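debug: dumping io for the single-chain case to check the tokenizer round-trip. Nothing else runs in this session.
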Amino acid sequence: MPEKEKKSGKKSKSSSSPDGGEPPLTAVERLQSLNLVSRVASEWNNHLGVSDRTLAEFVINLAERRIKSFLKEQFSREGGSLYHAALTDNDSGKDGKVRVGLVSSAVEQDVDAISAFRNDLISNGAGESIPPTFAARILRVVCDMSPRTERLMRKMDDKKRAKRLKVQKKQGDGGAQADGRVMSSIAPSARKNEMEGQFPGLVVPNLTGTVPLEEGFYEHDKKERHG
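debug: decoded output
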């Protein structure tokens, strides 16, 4: 009996975070999610003659996963189409508005993302008749309206900003000698070389030892100079 209670306790703990550790949706986000389900169900009914909220929720889940994969490829990975873009409006990223339209426009035009999402739908029984344009439209609708996708964008943007600041701080701590060189070892500029050519007498290296004096040369003291 105690083991059963312990087991059920574990189950209730895991079920309290259905989004993999993410906090539950707020009231506003739940409303956004309901609107999204209605919108996708309407789109599905208009194009395929099927209106089912459970089906719409399943399609949304597939689209959210595909958008996540798209962001990993194009935003997080160096060389991606959105790698140098910011997904929030302000520099801090924490309070700025998420630039959802930037991502939805990009994913709607990404042939690989559209093809992969269409294959997801077909492999789950949607049929071969789904046109790529319809798959692209569903991706854009989900990207524009999903509160989970918006959370993901902010999280990924914050992570990239933190990584960038860490690199900048590391470079700043190194200073001008981050590469191990001292100032005298840095290659001279073209202007410096030009000046040295015009005034060769000024570029003679400084003497490091004593200079021998000629015979008979001595320093006069003050009395001898004035008297």
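debug: round-trip ok. The chain has nine helices and no strands.
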